[in-house]
Amino acid sequence: xxxxxxxxxxxxxxxxxxxxxxxxxxxxxxxxxxxxxxxxxxxxxxxxxxxxxxxxxxxxxxxxxxxxxxxxxxxxxxxxxxxxxxxxxxxxxxxxxxxxxxxxxxxxxxxxxxxxxxxxxxxxxxxxxxxxxxxxxxxxxxxxxxxxxxxxxxxxxxxxxxxxxxxxxxxxxxxxxxxxxxxxxxxxxxxxxxxxxxxxxxxxxxxxxxxxxxxxxxxxxxxxxxxxxxxxxxxxxxxxxxxxxxxxxxxxxxxxxxxxxxxxxxxxxxxxxxxxxxxxxxxxxxxxxxxxxxxxxxxxxxxxxxxxxxxxxxxxxxxxxxxxxxxxxxxxxxxxxxxxxxxxxxxxxxxxxxxxxxxxxxxxxxxxxxxxxxxxxxxxxxxxxxxxxxxxxxxxxxxxxxxxxxxxxxxxxxxxxx
Length: 418
Ligand code: NIG
Ligand code: FE
Description:
CATH class of the largest domain: Alpha Beta
Strand content: 15-25%
Number of strands: 16
Bound molecules: N-(iminomethyl)-L-glutamic acid, fe (iii) ion
């Protein structure tokens, strides 16, 4: 078999094992391999092991060789929760936040998500595309090779929701980073439905969801289940209706107020429950029982400045698989830097560096249903690999806020170099 790219002398974190999310003690088992050789053929991983490369693999002058001595090699990172495609920015709310004005109060006063809805509505396809592409380039530079992108800034205006998902679809074709799309029509209650939100839920179920499915615009269906946004009952209706049509549920659950979103995610068979800063003990039990991936977003906790973080240790103790993502969006977390979130996951959620790398590789893959073909460095999986200029994983998380990326390989090709 001809090898196109060979990584030698690697200190690798392979995540080799089951093609499934890890929980409990296994969340911290990452499969270190010292002095490893990783051989890539086409867009797949052909060999991983101790050097030298077995004879069945042929290496010639066309083979690109990377000496990874002194560096750390991991699976390409996966950002499983972003609001990538949106118009505008919200720095005008920064001052309000510093003055102590609450996120949900800004939303209730017509700002927050509503202000991004206006900006997204006014932006053309091209403007949204260019802005999202810039962010994707930044993410790639941080070692990220797969990104989930949610719609949700059209809400009442379905054409804008469609525009967001079309942009994600086009970027998935044009950009080296793979995009996985989530419909989030239930991100806020449109202002014209403020006094009759159930009517909006009907529109979502009867008109929007069938259109999204028919036009293959998304794989998942997400709801912001939150006080003043969608109730547990409304969320349940929307999630079950989507599931019936083939869209797996995701839930923005117990982000700010403890409503029972964690319990709901388990009840409807969600693939993931996200945020969970205010999850109840019962919610944790239910998520553990159903092995719903908890996608935790420490950048949002940090940026909200409320001194509340998701109870990650309790979740690990109870057996909930954890993923860590950016939540990149113009309001609650305006940052594309997944490496920073990894440091925050250790500093704020008290996760070990090993638990954290699991959370941005195989568990993040599982949160978006892609654990079969990515999230680990194993023969047959996609050749998506990140190389960091650090001697250890501890150093990478400890030296926070900067970019440690040395090289990113996507589909077997070098796509980023420091
Ligand atoms: O995940 N919680 C709801 N949605 C986003 C924030 C969106 C926004 O503020 O624009 C979140 O935090
Ligand atoms: Fe979010």
